[in-house]
Amino acid sequence: MRASRQETARRSWNPRTLRSAVPAEQPRCLARPGWPETQHSSPRNAVSTVEPHSVGVTNIRVVASDAWAVAAAACPKHMSHGPCAGVRADGACEVPGVGRCSYLDVPDRDWPYADVLIPAPDPGAAIPDVAGAWPRSPAAAGFLATAATRPVVVADLVAPALSADGVRACAAEIVGFADACLTGDHPGARVQFPPSYRARLLAGEGVAAWAGINCRDRNRVAIEGEIAACADAGVAGVHCVTGDHPGTGHRPDAAAVFDLDSIELVELASMSLALPARPLCSVAHAPAAPPAGKRLARLLAKIDAGADVVFVDHCGGAGPLAEAVAALREAGFSGLVLCCVPVVTSAGAAEVVASFAADRLPPGYLDAIMSAPDPAESGVTAAVHFAEAVLAVPGVDGVNLSAGAGPGQELAVTRAMAEVGRRVLGAPAASRPRPAGGVS
Ligand code: SF4
Fold first, then answer.
1. Which long-range CB contacts under 8 A does 36-41 form with residues at least 24 apart?
2. Which ranges carry the Methylene-tetrahydrofolate reductase C-terminal-like domain (predicted)?
3. pLDDT band at 117 (very low <50, low <70, confident <90, very high)
4. In which domain, by residue range, is 239 found?
């Protein structure tokens, strides 16, 4: 199975994609001056990295410039494959007090993803379907089967932290109105049950989990175990993100791990042979995050590392989302594309959503809801309209209902998402052409 992927990687080799080729005699993990000690002193993960990646994705430390190395050394998350999506609109780092994101000062000529393209399929080459080389988990297969017939809905799990009963109660509200629940992060509650345990709790209520895995709290060994546990729990998908720095949440006292970044995590998740049945592997795309013009190329690197589903983050409304999806499809991505839809039905929910997406929501979205006579109904109606507009965009396969809740409001917000899901799924499914060669 692994040989098939590597064979495909070799076929996709394109010297145009590299600034410089990797000399054969160089070790796989080559230390460069300026790289953080914790990065270049540790050997590559034996499972996730078999050999240097053919397009220089996970051996970026070998092929990237010194300017890139300097930026990585200055990044508080030590990202090999920066910049993260937390770059503020004014170019500031997401970590308070750090100043400007270090990657924004890397000259264009040193941007390592600039020429990375997904190779166009060669009809005569009979390239194996890499994703299909592993058996899918039942939940992943079911999700794909559903996506082949109608738009899919993934709802954020908005449940009280560290409450099994709270997770079960929210799951009971959403079951039947979403195809999966994304167990992501919460900026105000960093301490959460492990993703695999939340997946078990959801499964107990008949809800498929889409497990969010971040690199903030676990090193590569712990992450590898967590991914295996999620697979064993029967998740439909694993969502691979770098994660916010602890300095942005309510536990700034915690050490920032960041042994891997999102691209390395994708490779770990997609290449692990410990998975008896493979969940889908998803990544986030933040088209509006600076440097906006270079975000697609970085996303292509994530896809090249093994992602087969893309969640497109809030980026200003259906119009900008359509542009981002069109560019992604034009680049050759044939997997699933799910777009974020904000669900805001109260002042508390608005505050939480604004904390991570205020400048990336459609202009006036929150104000219109909060000034309405019935914000709860107004929020549901606005989300349904937003979802319908997004689902009408060619190349979009579904939506991610994106929400947050203040303490004690989790159940109400989950009910609102269930109502949005009910109305969206109750609408006639649009018939959208699917690209050939999608995930299987
Ligand atoms: S915004 Fe993200 S990538 Fe940029 S320096 Fe800060 S943590 Fe690093």
1. 36/72, 36/73, 36/78, 38/78, 38/259, 39/72, 39/78, 39/80
2. 72-106
3. low
4. 131-426
CATH code for the domain in which residue 300 is found: 3.20.20.220
Cα–Cα distance, 237 to 215 (Å, whole number): 17
Is any ligand 1 atom within 6 A of the Cβ of residue 70? no
Contact call for residues 261 and 220 (beta carbons, < 8 A): no
Pairwise CA distance, residues 136 & 256, whole Å: 33
Separation CA 53–CA 77 (nearest Å)? 22
Beta strand ranges found along 271-334 (DSSP E)? 280-285, 309-312
* Residue 221 forms part of a structural domain: yes
Give the count of beta carbons closer than 10 Å to the beta carbon of residue 38.
Answer: 12
Please indicate whether residue 72, judged by its CB atom, sits closer than 6 Å to ligand 1.
no
Query: What is the pTM for the complete model shown?
Result: 0.84
Residue 89, domain member (yes or no): no
Per the structure, the count of domains in the chain is: 1
- Tens digits of per-residue pLDDT, 174-183? 999 999 999 9
Q: What is the pLDDT of residues 154-169, one digit of tens each?
A: 999 999 999 999 999 9
